[in-house]
Specification:
The structure is a homotetramer of 312-residue chains.
Chain A: E1 9-10, H1 26-38, E2 44-46, H2 58-72, E3 78-81, H3 87-99, E4 104-108, H4 118-131, E5 136-140, H5 142-145, H6 151-160, E6 165-168, H7 173-185, E7 193-196, H8 202-208, E8 212-213, H9 222-233, H10 237-251, H11 264-278, H12 296-308
Parallel strand pairs in A: 1-8, 2-3, 3-4, 4-5, 5-6, 6-7, 7-8
Helix pairs in contact in A: 1-2, 3-4, 6-7, 9-10, 11-12
Chain lengths: 312, 312, 312, 312
Amino acid sequence: MMIPTPLTGVVPPVCTPLTPDREVDVPSLRRLIDHLMEGGVHGLFVLGSTSEVAYLTNRQRQVVVETAVRHVGGRLPVLAGVIDMTTPRVLDHVRAVTEAGADAVVATAPFYARVTHPAEIARHYRLLAASSPVPVVAYDLPASVHTKLPAEVILDLAAEGALAGLKDSSGDLAAFREVVVGVRNRPELKGFSVLTGSELIIDAALAVGADGAVPGLANVDPAGYVRLDRLHHSGDLDSARAEQERLCALFGMVTVGDPGRMGGSSSALGAFKAALYLRGVIDCPATAEPQIPLSPEEVERVGKFLAGAGLL
Amino acid sequence: MMIPTPLTGVVPPVCTPLTPDREVDVPSLRRLIDHLMEGGVHGLFVLGSTSEVAYLTNRQRQVVVETAVRHVGGRLPVLAGVIDMTTPRVLDHVRAVTEAGADAVVATAPFYARVTHPAEIARHYRLLAASSPVPVVAYDLPASVHTKLPAEVILDLAAEGALAGLKDSSGDLAAFREVVVGVRNRPELKGFSVLTGSELIIDAALAVGADGAVPGLANVDPAGYVRLDRLHHSGDLDSARAEQERLCALFGMVTVGDPGRMGGSSSALGAFKAALYLRGVIDCPATAEPQIPLSPEEVERVGKFLAGAGLL
Amino acid sequence: MMIPTPLTGVVPPVCTPLTPDREVDVPSLRRLIDHLMEGGVHGLFVLGSTSEVAYLTNRQRQVVVETAVRHVGGRLPVLAGVIDMTTPRVLDHVRAVTEAGADAVVATAPFYARVTHPAEIARHYRLLAASSPVPVVAYDLPASVHTKLPAEVILDLAAEGALAGLKDSSGDLAAFREVVVGVRNRPELKGFSVLTGSELIIDAALAVGADGAVPGLANVDPAGYVRLDRLHHSGDLDSARAEQERLCALFGMVTVGDPGRMGGSSSALGAFKAALYLRGVIDCPATAEPQIPLSPEEVERVGKFLAGAGLL
Amino acid sequence: MMIPTPLTGVVPPVCTPLTPDREVDVPSLRRLIDHLMEGGVHGLFVLGSTSEVAYLTNRQRQVVVETAVRHVGGRLPVLAGVIDMTTPRVLDHVRAVTEAGADAVVATAPFYARVTHPAEIARHYRLLAASSPVPVVAYDLPASVHTKLPAEVILDLAAEGALAGLKDSSGDLAAFREVVVGVRNRPELKGFSVLTGSELIIDAALAVGADGAVPGLANVDPAGYVRLDRLHHSGDLDSARAEQERLCALFGMVTVGDPGRMGGSSSALGAFKAALYLRGVIDCPATAEPQIPLSPEEVERVGKFLAGAGLL
């Protein structure tokens, strides 16, 4: 299917449920997709950072995207991450996910390889666009990529037709606004999708002019984010803010992991999966290697966050 | 073949020659290997950063390692990089390169994924070691990985038998010395290889106690680095320093690219390949996408560096 | 005078006009204060980063704070920056500015010295609070200080009574919100001032719950920021956003300086002062050493930004 | 006195002993200077980072430099740090320390203020040189300043006569070598002093061509560093390396502080002062605020490092 221009609403980055021996748990993935669609989401983003894409082998990525496309069956657009170090490797993923039926691909700037000059980043996206049969969305995630996509590079690539959208997980709302306003001021950019990945300030991003949101926490509470989106568009901004603040409190679960024993990412992804497990959506809360698993006590604390948000 | 314990001497990270349409240029790769072996090197490291591993597709990586292993035919140890974001993906590369005959694998800490806690890094290497049929060498490259491998983590993993060596490209000689001295002080670490990737201070690293060196510039002048290594071991430290300084001057070629037009990595890898092209070793100086190619004038400046070092 | 609890509205960080030989231009500073007060601002913050505090000698700082306090004459609260590397040096500034009559002091975490542990930062603020005769406001500016003040440290210090407010120039609205909500949830923190320094997203910060704003660009257009604040509080959020976007366009002036010739800070502070000069507020647009001055053509481009915003 | 051109040998950055109430302990400072001179050092560097210059008030800095100059009485050159954020503030320190009799001043690039463009850094040093009655030495300390001084900027400023030397505490030996070789290749730079601050690789820096060393640990064991310097110059490089390794082991004391309770700098400076106290050189091991003091158990561990190095 064609993705809407622009894509709007809530497009969760779908977690990848794993079995105890770290294979993709296909039945759980299907149930998770059902859970998200029942929550009213407007699209799905598989193979993003919250999906543990960096940990999935190529074979596993294939299982994920095929499962999602088949299970969704065209009811919603399915975007697929094509996360890899440089253009040639990303192009291999573009081929794989589009053959499996993805409706758009989501690509970061190069990483590990030090090609961070704006001209190199632009060349990267131009080459992706030239080969991709579906629209290309830029993914700005400086915490992982270690460069920030400059607003003017994005706008120029959009004007060329090389980019169809931006998923901004930089946390930098001023830079995000520069893209939003730049799109609005250039009529030829009509239809370009400006999406925020900052799950704690989605109300603010929508107020600034975001088209939609890609919140990792929407795995746990899709209905909450859909409600936030609707409240915003109905003009009830106070209720939207209250809903966002409820979700911020729920997000506190990402800190359950003991920092002496694990990093913040093991804790956050572990908490999301523990929450899905506790809510009965997935069968096993395992995260991929080499992440450190949460202890039973830490999982219990996740449960308290769920209870506090009325989700248990 | 078994890699020596420790591995010593000069082990260049082998450039990956490409055709004009960016496929692996197998005949040129064979000629490059001949050129390195004629220079007297003590091992080969394929699929490292200087090999543009981050730009090579899995298929291309396979071609490289198979070509190298076959062409070398056991005359030298062949180490292969298994560079990817996390453990499961690295393990796929481990399988691929060891099936092709690599004698050791060289792996960084996880990147992109934020698993940078010492416990997560240790878990990563333990899992690699548990599955790899050949020794695992840790690759410390903070400029790409955005974490520094702590000396104590390396030494502990070495003591467990999980690591067989370290390739340190951090540029931090004090931290490097901590590993060298730590190995010397712990008898159970006898045979652990401590290799420096800092091509501009190899004389200093050897004096501190490095077992060997992995200098990218050795592609261009393998005989120079081998001479430097021999001069050091013969005790003629003044001549070793003079040879190192000649190589430092040659290394100046990495700055030929116009910084307004490209990043430092496009410039540096472009210069190495231009030099190999100008010396008649490879057929085409192309670098992988999305790197920016050197202009003819910039290539000409590479030639002047070669001439200045007596290599043209 | 006592500062309001909380401090609300627009509190510009006052530029420090300089003479051509880089002395404080006292008549221009008085005119700038008049200009700001005529614009309707709610307080003044002297000796902040936009005031070039890092460039002013102790003697010059004294002239600035004495001039401001005397000229304002109690009509508005005057906050004064006490920016220095560590506690003992900051305490000297606290003494100086409070003897001159400052109503509150604004202090960063330590910098240059590497005391960035939360316990060290907390100790710093506790010592400042114990000695300061006026309230202490924490200043979060990671771009200069190279650490981010953790929300929980700020909230705990606020609960102890050590901090009276926060000026957040981190650009991280999610972390800002954590402080805003934390203050609201803890009744004992009533009156704590949460101020944003992010001049491009003040509408969003107010919507999230900021008490007030400290925008550098308010030197150039104080009436615009006061209007934005009023529109927000009157509930006309669309007009508030439009006003903010007009100010964002005006902010574009910070990029007039040629990046080949100077850094972004020379360009930005040079543009603010050029704008004040072109608007007839100050006599000389000089910035402090070693900043690079704008060229006449660059100053002319500042004029175009003013014209575009209806300010010339 | 004129400083030698180049300055050679061991020039310790002198710790600043404090009383229990954090005033400069003048008798202890004199004893520390005696201890260093008895150890055979070749110059003294007061008000450097190891001297806690960032924590000393202007009045305390004055006491330190006056005490040192008077007590040394021209027997050795005394260099003084003039550490502050930007040119005008540094110039105030230049006036203060040269009136007190310092023989050279040591200045970093600007920090806190974001003037990090090479043209801005060059302008800073040119202005310092134009006003300073004594030679200016550049201090490269990226860990505190958050920029690295580029080798070509240093060499160009040296050629202009604006800089008399470099104290390099970057830990980047390859960049250090670029300056060393650059000085050697440009006859007009004869007499420029290239000094390393990397106390763990001084043998390597000397082998590369350093003129001298500025090791913080030389406060604790000046005789050791002087011995290392002599062994190097006598050509007994194996013994020089052994001495360096003994000093590296001694340096392990910097890790005694519990990282859960304090940062690395509180631990390191606390350990140096504890060592001087345990060796009977200074009366009180207090460090400046807001550093966290070592516990009695941590001090005891410092004693074990001293014993291990034969210093108790």
